[in-house]
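Notes continue from the previous slide.

Worked example: a multi-chain complex. Inputs as given:
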Amino acid sequence: MKSIKVTSPIVFSVCRGDIPKELLREFYRTMFWIQKVELKINELYHEDEMKTPVHLCLGQEAVAAGVCLNLNANDYVFTNHRGHGHYIAKGGNIKAMVAEFYNRETGCSRGRGGSMHLVDTAVGLLGSSSIVGGGIPLATGAALASVLRKDNRVSLAFFGDAAIEEGVIYESINFAMLKKLPVVYVCENNLYSVFSHLSKRQAQDDIYRRFIGLDIPIYRVDGNNVVAVYRAAKKAIAQARDGGGPSFIECRTYRLKDHHGTGSGVEVGYRSQEEVDEWVARCPVKNYERFLLEQRLLTAVEIKQFTDAVDREVEGVFNFAHASPLPREDEVLDYLYQ
Amino acid sequence: MDWSKTLVKEEINFEADKKGRKLSYAAAIREALELAMTSDERVFIMGQGVDDPVGMFGITLDLHKKYGQERVFDTPLSENALTGVAIGAAVAGMRPVYMHNRPDFLLLAMDQIVNHAAKWSYMFGGSVRAPLVIWACVGRGWGGAAQHTQTLQGLFMHIPGLRLVMPTTPYDAKGLLITGIADNNPVIILEHRWLLRQSGYVPEGLYSIPFGCGVVRRQGKDITIVAISYMVVEALGAARELEKQGIDAEVIDPRTLRPLDEAIILESVKKTGRLVVADTGWKTGGVGAEITALVAEKGFEYLKAPVRRVTTLDIPTPASDVLEAKFYTGKADIIVSCSEIMEKKVTK
């Protein structure tokens, strides 16, 4: 497992032909959807109509798409505060998600959760925690439920590099290994926690090495390479489904925006324009689009038709959210207990 | 010396006058688990030592032999992650019961209990839920000291989204646990070690006791004693002594603190005009503070005298039995508090 340098080019390896062409196109569509929704939030956030702290995943689209396109609709996913991409890639209702950003009653959490708390039980999205690492044991527990029921589901937790600093990741992996649970731990290492670089928080850089002593299968991939992410996740998920137990995947990536909101970090000054530019050049969507064109998997006309259609749909999604009713004040106590 | 043998005080039998079968407190809880596991295959039991030869004070003894190691299993000590595991399984449709020897260890799991279990329903607008039971038994005595005897009901009562149950009798322990397992919300049950060797009348089969429904343990007209958990025993003892002094005390056992049966407390105070709250926990910001504030807000016009709280001292539990005796309160303190406010009148 070699270290991934910021400047290394993204090499999409599909020469073996083991990934169906339609799936290769679907990677692009999913990533483009995520990017489009995030860009739309980025565009409208200043209006202050979305009264919730949005954590954009621009730059990380390949992790969500590469992982989730391996999952079945009834597989379970627990995600974190930066979960828009995971929600979209798992097939969550996008109208309900955006309505949640607008704090509407039609939101996936009926305006009680906001952008950090997304749910769609119809596709196995059982909730997202904004406590760093909080969703990791929940995914582990959902996997335990699957073992007890023998329902052949796989559970998956998405979390960032800072979750590695929480004890709960070690506790969860130990238990998952002990019980051989069908759970996959996906770490999106985007190098920053709020303004703090990984080097200020962790004694050594290679996150994947922390768990070698637990004997869990470990993958480390370029998180900006959707094909690489897909290949690692495919092995990990297949192993989990076959009763082989959990795996851990470290995806090295980068968030192009601030921890929350629409800044790039350069204005505040915790990182340089040069650094951001290097990662803009490694955009997972743009690079993959170029690859698809080179490989003639999609034509420029097809891409234009698709992206125009998504543009229109996204307009509709945001209009729906904006026009939706707010929660009723007299229902403020509802849903505390069931 | 065996810890548990030193802790058993006088036997109380609240239901001894009723006809029927007598069971020990531990056997009553075990029967609830057994019935729940038989009737609902979603139920499973986890916790450190639940399948060991002691079986959690006998409560889980040999259940793994009947239901298999998959449904009754030992856990790593990782309390926070394992609480999350229980929550995740519950959110995915199971009914976990996570058992702990002592509530002190729940402090390691406060992130998962407070940030996750308590919020999972509300935060997602009711589209998901976390029906799990967390069970723990408060320790007391034999130098258990500061980290093995804590009564943390004040902390848990503060958290919206949790249920908080503190049974007193074998009958209630069984019925409330069955209700807890069937409930669609996270339920914390805090037992008391000194109640665990008690025995009492316990019906066979499944029955449930509704949450938020207290009981009058003793009827009286002069003063209301709201007693929590083991303090019910002390309050009943105090009431017998007070009777000799001509003071007729009513003893209320709320049984659940979240939800709290406000009506039973307010009705009693309306009748007696005087209130003492006896809790096994600390005074400041605790259960006594909440219940007395409730009466001050909703029943002030009934009060003929100041309220009193009988609690432990606001310090960590000391180990030495000399200091421990000062730390804990009981029958004598309840008697003193009751006598004081029987003499005092509030002029309004």
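Summary box: The radius of gyration of chain A is 19 Å. Chain A touches chain B through 45 residues (CB under 8 Å).
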